[in-house]
């Protein structure tokens, strides 16, 4: 962990060679949702391979690059693709991009993901604004020697997702006349989709959707005191008594078809 500060500095130096603006907002675009980056007035694009210490994104639908520029007149840096525990990456690698964006200057993090709907009131193509999460990934982003130059060791997790931003996101959906829920995101390590028994278990412990990402990045952001908005695109309905087969390609396709809703929320928040 003590070497983490040096890794962040090296990555920031390379990014600064191509883009000198201070971003105020960092955006993490999940599976099938990378098209949000198409709305950015691009000033620089940087492949992960060109940034020291960033690995390759191998997930379906992840471009694997940083998109830097302006969106709704705000300076933003967007990850077009993220890193997952199921790809074999440790928590320190999964959260490194968030720490890099923080070092660049962001004070707001918007995280998005594709998720399976556990709540029977949810339908594919709808959005859930994350109010809270359940971490079942067995990935703890903050374990190890803590570098106090980055943040204190024990972050408060009573409200990791910003209450004001949740209300604003839901209000944007109402004005745009599309369905958006408020609920709990359960994070599992993957890469398998869950069994019927696991879906029942997740629902009983209070989860509304389930996915394989987001929580490690939010933990890093919470540790540093960033405001966080989390958005889940419901890509498939996971009702155990009427469960059909699900593929990664299906998830990406559904997310891409409905990503206009995510775009509307992000633009509304930034305005």
Largest sheet: 5 strands, mixed, barrel
Number of domains: 1
Q: In DSSP terms, counting alpha (H) and pi (I) runs of 4 or more, how many helices?
A: 7
Which class best fits the helix and strand makeup? alpha/beta
CATH structural class: Alpha Beta
- Poorly predicted runs are none
H-E string: HEEEEHEEHEHEHEHH
Gyration radius (Cα, Å) is 17 Å
Distance between the termini: 37 Å
The dominant shape is globular
- Strand percentage lies at 25-35%
CATH architecture, please? 3-Layer(aba) Sandwich
Classify the fold: give the CATH topology.
Rossmann fold
Going across the major beta sheet, what is the strand order?
5-8-7-6-9
Summarize the structure.
This protein has 271 residues and is α/β, with parallel strands linked by helices. It is built from 7 helices and 9 strands, in the order αββββαββαβαβαβαα.
What does it look like?
The protein is an alpha/beta fold. The protein has a single domain, classed as Rossmann fold (3-Layer(aba) Sandwich). It is 31% helix and 25% strand. A 5-stranded mixed β-barrel has the order 5-8-7-6-9, surrounded by 4 helices. Helix 4 links the parallel strand 7 and strand 8. Helix 1 packs across helix 2. The mean pLDDT is 89.
